[in-house]
Amino acid sequence: MGSSLPMQLDRIAIEELIYRSCLALDRKDFKAYLDLCDEDFRYTIAAYSPEIRKDMIWLDHDKPGLQLLFTNLPRHISDHSPVTRHASVYTVEYSAEQQQANVITALQVFKTSLDGGATELFAVGRYLDKVKINGGQPRLLERVVELETRQFGFGYHIPF
Length: 160
Fold this sequence. Notes:
3 helices, six-stranded mixed beta sheet, globular, alpha+beta, Nuclear Transport Factor 2, Chain: A
């Protein structure tokens, strides 16, 4: 059971971390994104399929695996349309014992087409983050992207 944060300032720092992670990915600044992550970081994209009544894991990487994915992105046939992440932090539950916070954030991702500039809602889901708080700046320890959207077309390889 989590408790409230000991100081409002901690919540602000955690929210800033979440928002900075979105800004870094929007800019495709993968180094800046990984700099926000702890060395033990784990990243997973999951979606529930009502057709098979199971969770599907679409991506599961530790920090070095995510770095390799980012390094190999230029080799993929990709959709280069820019995306913009809109995040709203809902809850932050702090565990003083574990020196971490569990954060739930609503996520909407918009994509703007390169041919014509139309913008559409691309994906909807949640970030389920674990944030390490051992003094200094908070760091992402784990991010599970729990998607509602399950169809993206081809060529989209950048994590949400």
